[in-house]
């Protein structure tokens, strides 16, 4: 991801808007590849609503939480495999080919889910969708970064994140649209094949990554693509930067095709950058966002909202705010910096998780039991649906909520540590993530690749970050 030098106070967001008029070809590349992020976001959001109706269709799923958890988590298991295999596929056959494969697998998974006659087929479909999501989630930002001008690279790569959250918001809208349609969850899950098919068609008309082409010895093709991406005054410098970068790879490893991982890990710059990058990705998953997005309607129902439609509608607020946060980050990422945004967002995450934990703890400890024996001391007042259910009926919190208009009730059935402790655990992880960012993640706003490497090489343990960079760094960045 070679980068030219650009001023530290430039607004990449404003430049992106300007670029849309001057060179729409670049935005076409970015948004076509970014549909891979839309697939990821749609799958994350759609299963949360579809699961409510899947439970109604299959008694085994409704009675066994392990099946519910398998339906949700098998996509993530497939994504792990897809991402690992996608790395090899990208290097061997190209970024464009990797996205095409991801779209094909996702489409197959969507068809299997929509037509699933039993939970096992649904789980298989989720695995295929996971394969596609995993490959697309690591290929799309790579393709965008290698096919974007350096000046707006940060903002364009951020569009992938925006499309992830946008896909989540879209999934809740589609879930609401199909709540009254026969087949409900089959339509919800089947529609996921549409963006996959759209991206497949769009990618057929787009070129391969210029960096990948150059590494494969196809210099003329790479240069032709670079001339479409960059302006006439910048293209020659970018061609030279790409050439120097590939030659440096060959000089260090003996080949631009083979990378000595052991040698790379011995390099201080690479090791520190890898720790920061991988650490951020790990913490991003472990602060609990996927739990909220996958189970948002269920969480709303646990708070006392029995209606599926109402739970989906309220979950739309969560998805909308998530998408709004992505837009805000695109605007501010090159204005106030990456690290400051990370710190501010993590503080918000910690406060939110603390509030969720406290609220669920309060409601659980004060919720009335539903058995006739335990409610006798309340003058025999209990849930009307429970009274008419009969002595042999299986009863739990969700059945109580769906069968009456009473308030919150809590059930310890099938929960190992409970809702409150679950969110508290995520909160503790978020605090650790905040400390990690403060210590291990440097601010790279406005710095060319050369300065970032130098900073990683000389970086010492320090917590200060909310200060202006020395004037000498600014001057070097503006040369």
Automatic annotation (TrEMBL):
- Tell me where the transmembrane regions lie: 29-54, 66-85, 97-117, 123-144, 156-178, 184-206, 274-296, 311-334, 341-360, 421-441
Keyword field contains Transmembrane? yes
List the InterPro entries hit by this protein, alphabetically: MFS_dom, MFS_sugar_transport-like, MFS_trans_sf, Myo-inositol_Transporter, Sugar/inositol_transpt, Sugar_transporter_CS
* Keyword Transmembrane set for record: yes
Question: What are the subcellular locations of this protein?
Answer: Membrane
| A Pfam entry, by short name | Sugar_tr
Keywords from the named record: Membrane, Transmembrane, Transmembrane helix, Transport
Question: Where do the Major facilitator superfamily (MFS) profile domain residues begin and end?
Answer: 29-479
Q: What is its main location?
A: membrane
User: Superkingdom, according to UniProt?
Assistant: Eukaryota
Looking up Gene3D superfamilies in the UniProt record yields: MFS general substrate transporter like domains
The terms under GO molecular function for this entry are: myo-inositol:proton symporter activity
Record's GO cellular component terms: membrane
Query: How does the record say this protein sits in the membrane?
Result: Multi-pass membrane protein
| Recorded family membership | Belongs to the major facilitator superfamily. Phosphate:H(+) symporter (TC 2.A.1.9) family.
What's the name of the protein?
Answer: Major facilitator superfamily (MFS) profile domain-containing protein
Q: Which organism is it from?
A: Mikania micrantha
